[in-house]
Amino acid sequence: xxxFEEGKKLFxxxxxxxxxxxxxxxxxxxxxxxxxxxxxLVEAYYGSTLALLARDASQPLEKxxxxxxxxxxxxxxxxxxxxxxxxxxxxxxxxxxxxxSFFQCSKxxxxxxxxxxxxxxxxxxxxxxxxxxxxxxxLSTAYQNMGKPDxxxxxxxxxxxxxxxxxx
Length: 168
Hints:
mainly alpha
C-alpha cells in the first residue's frame, strides 16, 4: 500500500511534467503489477505511466508504441473493473490528451466521462465539485476533438444544472 501511494505521488508529479518522476512511477507500478497481476487499479496506473512515457519520448515511433501500449493496458483495466471511478478517470484523461487524428479515442473519453457523470447524477457525493467541473470541460473538449462542435457547446448547457446544484 505504501509503495502504491508513493507511485501515485510520483505519477502526479509526472503529470505536471517531471520526467524523472514518470520513470520512477513507472518502475513502481511495473513491480506492483508483477506482484499483483489481477489488480485493475495498479494496471490502470501502469497504463497511465506508459502514456506519460510516450509523452516524454523523443522518437515518434516510441511515442506511438508506448501510447498504444498504455491505452491497451487501460482498456484491460476497465474490462477487469468497469465500475471503478478512478480507473475511468485515468483512462478518460489519457484518451483526451492523445492526438485524435492518430488514436481516435475521444469517443472512449466521452463514454468514460458520461459514465462518471451519470453516477454523479444518481449520487451527488460520487464526485467533488471540482471533478464535475473538470469532467464537463473535458467532455466538451472530447466532442471538439471528435469534430462535433455542436455537441461540445451543448455539453455545458446540458450539465449546467449539475454545476449549479453542486455549488449549493
